[in-house]
Amino acid sequence: DWSMSAYRAEMQKKIREQVGTGRVICGLSGGVDSAVAAVLIHEAIGDQLTCVFVDHGLMRLGEAEQVVTLFRDHYNIPLVHVDAEELFLSELAKCGSDPEAKRKTIGRLFIDVFDAEAAKLGGADFLAQGTLYPDVIESVSFSGGPSVTIKSHHNVGGLPERMKMKLVEPLRELFKDEVRVLGRELGLPEAFVGRHPFPGPGLAIRCPGEITKEKLDILRKADAIYLDEIRKAGLYDVIWQAFAVLLPVRTVGVMGDYRTYDHVCALRAVTSVDGMTADFYPFDMNFLGRAATRIINEVKGINRVVYDVTSKPPGTIEWE
Ligand code: XMP
């Protein structure tokens, strides 16, 4: 792609100009955006970059391992893997059910953990982030209306003064589809580049209500089965984003001779161009039945599955 190879060269020039001989820390979230930003920056300034992967324990099944393998073994990019699950879960336990409290807590902890890692690394001058254009505008206003924040995106909004790190945000002008093109241009594996977007706050915003490790483990299993069925049906690339949500509601069911009283799992799948608007995906009912049966049979703790048929607007893609 000619325009993307030009963009790549231009951004690398800009990164070098901005950064000089400074040190850069890049937070990896496990998603495509931060990965593309990191690889782009590494190509521009080499080992002046250190990546920090704050593992908040809110990743999907097997995802943390994949990130570490890709960056350390494949790209040889200096990577610090911080296992912060306990810290995040204990602070999230104090948030109760409030979605904004969860997001703000996660955002604050990310910054705290970064701060600590930066200090351990002997300080850094810049913090790199994979902020995209839709993140920038959606944090500022909504549909041209008054300037209100619909959801606080943890990766937008600058840093506390005390960190004294300047931001490097090479993807700020790009939409998601353009980031994917750039990722391919940079040689990221197709399985990684083609991945559905994943929000910084991770599974915390797909687990309405109070967050516990037990619920997250149930959600991870259901989500993995759902995505497995989507891949088997050849639908993964047609869908913008698909995921399971574990509802804080229990309902009665029956399994064999037993009455069950377990969680409801909602399935979400949407098509979209940039995440700003979205349509729910019109699965065929046989597909949904198959996914539901597998989830209920294979995941202890779920006995009912529903499908979300809300588009955006009026819904958002995530449930919180
Ligand atoms: P919503 O739910 O606002 O999501 O319709 C639009 C897109 O943004 C993703 N999303 C986030 N990404 N940090 C992120 O990095 C966040 O806090 C966040 N919240 C939502 C969401 O997954 C969807 O792709």
UniProtKB/TrEMBL annotation:
* Coiled coil, from the record: none
Q: How would you classify this enzyme at the top EC level?
A: ligase
Residues annotated as domain GMPS ATP-PPase: 2-195
Offer an example of a GO molecular function term for this protein: GMP synthase activity
Per its UniProt entry, which superkingdom is the organism in? Answer: Bacteria
E.C. code: 6.3.5.2
Q: What chemistry does it catalyse, as a reaction equation?
A: XMP + L-glutamine + ATP + H2O = GMP + L-glutamate + AMP + diphosphate + 2 H(+)
Q: Does the keyword Nucleotide-binding apply?
A: yes
State the UniProt keywords alphabetically: ATP-binding, Glutamine amidotransferase, GMP biosynthesis, Ligase, Nucleotide-binding, Purine biosynthesis
The UniProt entry's GO CC annotations, sorted and at most eight, read: cytosol
Q: Where does ATP bind?
A: 29-35
Q: In which pathway does it act?
A: Purine metabolism; GMP biosynthesis; GMP from XMP (L-Gln route): step 1/1
Oligomer status and interactors: Homodimer.
Tell me the function of this protein.
Catalyzes the synthesis of GMP from XMP.
What name does the UniProt record give this protein? Answer: GMP synthase [glutamine-hydrolyzing]
Taxonomy of origin reads: Bacteria, Pseudomonadati, Pseudomonadota, Alphaproteobacteria, Hyphomicrobiales
